[in-house]
């Protein structure tokens, strides 16, 4: 019924892998523990409780706020981040579980020396945003989608971006933006 | 004195063009800071504790364990012993602590004993809620008793329902606030009204308004639910004061957001309509009821649009429920009224064996704008390919059935109170300042377009400053009145400032101020480009001075000036396919035709209509608040089971905004609300057309559709 696909959800395989790694490392907490994250190419250290989600640690401890807290329950995709290049919901993973992984947020790729990433540019060109609160999550999901599907059809875009929700109703613009970004990223024209 | 009227449509250079939004990159790149993103030095995090019962008396409340929890800076009891709570989720206590997690842990230690009282939370069956019903007086026009007896008329009767919806703003309600020992308050809310919320905060805290400063750069959705500081705003300020002025951040958890931070009233009605065999409608007879929470409320304006039906009887009852109070919703009560009118009309057409398009057209004289609706119905039908695709109700076979349906809308719009200040500096810089807000509608962008147009400059030459109480007051962003208000005040302020600039440079151009014009980045003698100064050179004449002029939109006088007016109509046609075995209704297309006066930015205007249509699709197919009779609580207070459409669920949306000289002459009107009205009626009618029977209860979920097909009452 609802176009929520599996693309934005936490990959079961990755979770399983994590579970094994965790049991090997032993139990952490309760109470705050040192956590080392590789965030947007830089190593950052924080002291947080094992029960804290990556989303909350990014927003509350690291002031990385392009990642938004909306449903806080793995439904809306506003907290989308990339973990080793795969899109995941920041609200549905614990910060301690992604140590040693490459974590990329919207801040990590959206602007390079002030120049917008083609996905960002396409979102602006196609007015694929209104209040904008869901938009960084959409841009992260769209980038990951295009990284894995550089030549999407319009139907594939609808499936690939099915893990993100917008309340203002910007989907018409998002559809066009993702297709435009695909063309531009391959060296084609906007139109 | 400047003449403020808009330049002719054909002569505009900046207005009317589809510029991309000014804050587009900032938002899409995640750099836009919403107030929920603020992390201020020393900031405390606050959480609220809600009552788990729909109706209860607080017997005792013990916060001592919370107060001694590590990191806790303040605890507030919001519902002291003896308080009678009338809905689940009601705020009982609040905790502020150095970390969010400490605040949550402490909140869990608050011990509250309740005396649980009986509740009623569902109103679909009027007979069961009679004890909670408050009837308004019966309203009668013409002779409804006689009208139903006329020979040769066809009568259609049905009962219809449309549920309570939750606003579901993606940025939840909340704020960051600091109430410092010098009695000053810095308030950073998520609000639709930067200007008026200052007065509300000042009143609630008993602080002079001049001591309250409000700032907001962006808001993550409001839809009518974010006008007040709310109880959490006031309590968080008190906690800041207790904590010596440290900033306190409170943004509601999703579950609380869904329960208490905004819903719209339901709407139910048993409607009898009658028409002559040619389709002329002669009778409207309705018994309607709705709930807006404990205070009742929610009276849909029915019959909607077709207000001149000659014989009418209306009886409405407000139902008081133990549910959170309603808030304004994008076009309050209009979706309900549109559905409760257009659905009976579709049923009447089926009873008459008439094409509903013909029935709507036949009766346009019963609307206040017959020409508009006739034109729009025909245009929407053309875009929908109605004549080819529409089939009589019940005439289809097979498991996948396609249906078409119609819904109509109307709205006021016009401009709210707004003052703009335009500053022109000697280096040529132009600032326009308004205490307004951009809800994502593109307010910043259209302000900039109006200023650039008026000053003969480019968009990039204008610095728009909004979202702060240091700027002149502007109205609340509600009722689709923002664009009318801010465009008119910006027009007047910029032209007033330009007049001053003309006065400064007329001598240098050997002319009089009233003989000058601002065109293409130059100040020149009218029609004489050879006698000109560049904008920069003209501004240099200011020397050490700068110009600062204001202009105001005053709603009472706006119509005379012609900058903004109100009153529009629109038509939606939906095209759906329903699977008769599973009951799943799928959108094929939604067509929206909208009349909307002068359009400043067709790109953002189209986005508004797309968004309004998508909100209609959510409301027609998915959204409903589900209340549990036994516990009195909302069962789907999340975004998993409170369904919103995803990118795949909306089909294609075809928008036709009537941009033409005739509409343009009416001035700016406002577009946020009207296209959000008719879609639910259109989609519901399309479903009934497809499946062959009325599915009486919105949303058109598989359960409701299969119940209707199997003759079950849902």
Description:
The complex is a heterodimer of chains A (191) and B (714). With 191 residues, chain A is of the alpha+beta class. Chain A is 35% helix and 15% strand. Chain A has two domains: 12-108, Roll (Ubiquitin-like (UB roll)); 111-185, DNA polymerase, domain 1 (Orthogonal Bundle). Chain A has a five-stranded mixed beta sheet, sandwiched between helices. In chain A, strand 3 (80-83) and strand 4 (86-89) form a beta hairpin. In chain A, helix 3 crosses helix 6. Chain A is elongated, with a radius of gyration of 17 Å. Chain B has 714 residues and is an alpha+beta fold. In chain B, the strands form seven sheets. Chain B has a seven-stranded mixed beta sheet. In chain B, strand 20 and strand 21 (430-434) form a beta hairpin.
What secondary-structure arrangement, pairings included, does this model have?
The complex is a heterodimer of chains A (191) and B (714).
Chain A: H1 12-25, E1 33-39, E2 42-48, H2 54-61, E3 80-83, E4 86-89, E5 102-104, E6 111-112, E7 115-116, H3 118-125, H4 135-148, H5 154-160, H6 171-185
Parallel strand pairs in A: 1-5
Antiparallel strand pairs in A: 1-2, 3-4, 3-5, 6-7
Chain B: H1 24-28, E1 44-50, E2 56-62, H2 64-67, E3 72-77, E4 84-85, E5 91-97, H3 100-107, E6 111-116, E7 133-135, E8 139-141, H4 144-147, E9 153-162, E10 165-166, E11 174-179, E12 185-189, H5 194-205, E13 212-214, H6 230-242, E14 248-251, H7 254-260, E15 263-264, E16 267-276, E17 281-291, E18 311-319, H8 334-351, H9 356-362, H10 370-384, H11 386-389, E19 400-413, E20 418-424, E21 430-434, H12 443-455, E22 462-466, H13 482-505, E23 516-519, E24 522-525, E25 528-534, H14 535-540, E26 547-553, H15 555-561, E27 566-579, E28 585-595, H16 602-621, E29 652-658, H17 661-664, H18 679-691, H19 702-709
Parallel strand pairs in B: 1-14, 12-13, 17-18, 21-22, 28-29
Antiparallel strand pairs in B: 1-5, 2-4, 2-6, 3-5, 7-18, 8-18, 9-16, 10-15, 11-12, 11-14, 16-17, 19-27, 20-21, 20-26, 23-24, 24-25, 27-28
Helix pairs in contact in B: 8-18, 12-13, 16-18
């Amino acid at each position: 019924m609802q176009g929520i696909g599996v693309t934005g959800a936490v990959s079961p395989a990755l979770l399983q892998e994590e579970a094994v790694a965790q049991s090997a490392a032993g139990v952490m907490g309760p109470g705050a523990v040192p956590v080392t994250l590789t965030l947007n190419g830089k190593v950052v250290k924080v002291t947080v409780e094992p029960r804290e989600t990556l989303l909350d640690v990014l927003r509350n401890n690291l002031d990385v706020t392009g990642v938004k807290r909306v449903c806080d329950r793995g439904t809306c995709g506003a907290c989308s981040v990339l973990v080793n290049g795969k899109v995941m919901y920041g609200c549905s993973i614990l910060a301690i579980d992604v140590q040693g992984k490459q974590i990329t947020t919207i801040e990590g790729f959206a602007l390079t020396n002030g120049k917008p990433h083609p996905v960002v540019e396409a979102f602006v060109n196609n007015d694929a945003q209104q209040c904008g609160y869901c938009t960084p999550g959409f841009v992260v999901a769209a980038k990951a989608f295009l990284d894995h599907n550089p030549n999407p059809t319009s139907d594939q875009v609808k499936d690939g971006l099915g893990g993100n929700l917008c309340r203002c109703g910007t989907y018409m613009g998002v559809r066009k933006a993702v297709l435009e970004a695909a063309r531009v990223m391959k060296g084609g024209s906007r139109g | 004195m400047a003449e403020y009227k808009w330049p002719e449509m054909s002569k505009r250079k900046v207005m009317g063009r589809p510029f991309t939004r000014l804050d587009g990159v900032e938002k899409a790149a995640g750099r836009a800071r919403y107030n929920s993103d603020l992390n201020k030095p020393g900031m405390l995090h606050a959480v609220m504790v809600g009552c788990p019962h729909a109706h209860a008396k607080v017997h005792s409340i013990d916060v001592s364990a919370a107060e001694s929890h590590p990191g806790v800076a303040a605890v507030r009891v919001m519902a002291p012993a003896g308080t009678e709570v009338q809905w689940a989720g009601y705020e009982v206590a609040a905790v502020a602590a150095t970390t969010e997690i400490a605040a949550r842990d402490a909140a869990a230690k608050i011990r509250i004993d309740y005396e649980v009282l009986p509740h009623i939370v569902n109103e679909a069956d009027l007979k069961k809620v009679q004890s909670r019903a408050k009837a308004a007086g019966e309203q009668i026009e013409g002779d409804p008793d006689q009208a139903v007896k006329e020979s040769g008329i066809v009568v259609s009767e049905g009962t219809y329902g449309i549920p309570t919806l939750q606003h579901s703003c993606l940025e939840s309600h909340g704020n960051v606030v600091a109430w410092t020992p010098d009695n000053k308050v810095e308030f950073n809310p998520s609000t639709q009204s930067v200007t008026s919320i200052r007065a509300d905060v000042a009143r609630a805290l008993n602080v002079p308004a001049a001591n309250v400063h409000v700032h907001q750069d962006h808001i993550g959705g409001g839809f009518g639910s974010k006008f007040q500081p709310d109880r959490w705003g006031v309590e968080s300020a008190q906690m800041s004061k207790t904590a010596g002025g440290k900033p306190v951040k409170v943004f509601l958890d999703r579950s609380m957001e869904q329960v208490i931070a905004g819903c719209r009233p339901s709407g139910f009605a048993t409607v009898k309509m009658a028409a002559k065999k040619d389709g002329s409608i002669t009778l409207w007879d309705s018994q309607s009821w709705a709930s807006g929470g404990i205070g009742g409320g929610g009276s849909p304006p029915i019959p909607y649009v077709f207000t001149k039906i000659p014989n009418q009887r209306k009886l409405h009852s407000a139902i008081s429920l133990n549910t959170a109070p309603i808030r304004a919703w994008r076009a309050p009560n209009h979706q309900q009224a549109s559905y409760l009118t257009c659905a009976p009309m579709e049923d009447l057409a089926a009873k008459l064996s008439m094409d509903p398009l013909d029935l709507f057209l036949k009766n346009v004289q019963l609307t206040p704008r017959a020409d508009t609706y006739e034109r729009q119905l025909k245009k929407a039908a053309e875009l929908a390919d109605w004549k080819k695709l529409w089939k009589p109700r019940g005439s289809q076979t097979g498991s996948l059935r396609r249906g078409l349906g119609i819904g109509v809308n109307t709205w006021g719009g016009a401009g709210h109170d707004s003052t703009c200040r335009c500053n022109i500096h000697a280096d040529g810089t132009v600032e326009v300042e308004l205490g307004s807000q951009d809800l994502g509608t593109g307010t910043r962008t259209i302000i900039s377009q109006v200023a650039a147009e008026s000053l003969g400059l480019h968009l990039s030459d204008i610095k728009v400053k909004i979202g702060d109480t240091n700027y002149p007051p502007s109205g609340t962003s509600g009722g689709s009145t923002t664009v009318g208000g801010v465009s008119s005040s910006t027009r007047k302020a910029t032209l007033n400032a330009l007049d001053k600039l003309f006065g400064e440079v007329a001598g240098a151009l050997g002319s009089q101020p009233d003989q000058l014009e601002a065109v293409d980045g130059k100040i020149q003698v009218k029609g004489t480009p050879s006698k000109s100064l560049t904008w920069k050179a003209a501004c240099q004449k200011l020397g050490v001075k700068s110009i600062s002029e204001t202009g105001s939109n005053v709603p009472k006088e706006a119509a005379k000036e012609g900058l903004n007016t109100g009153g529009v109509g629109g038509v939606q046609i939906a095209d759906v396919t329903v699977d008769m075995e599973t009951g799943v209704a799928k959108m094929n297309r939604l067509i929206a035709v909208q009349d909307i006066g002068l359009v400043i930015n067709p790109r953002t205007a189209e986005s508004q209509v797309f968004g309004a249509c998508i909100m209609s699709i959510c409301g027609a197919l998915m959204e409903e608040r589900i209340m549990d009779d036994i516990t009195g609580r909302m069962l789907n207070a999340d975004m998993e089971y409170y369904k919103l459409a995803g990118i795949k669920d909306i089909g294609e949306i075809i928008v036709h905004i009537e941009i033409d000289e005739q509409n343009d002459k009416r001035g700016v009107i406002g577009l946020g609300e009207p296209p959000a009205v008719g879609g639910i009626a259109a989609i519901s009618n399309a479903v009934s057309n497809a499946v062959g029977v009325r599915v009486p209860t919105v949303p058109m979920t598989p359960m409701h559709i299969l119940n209707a097909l199997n003759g079950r009452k849902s």
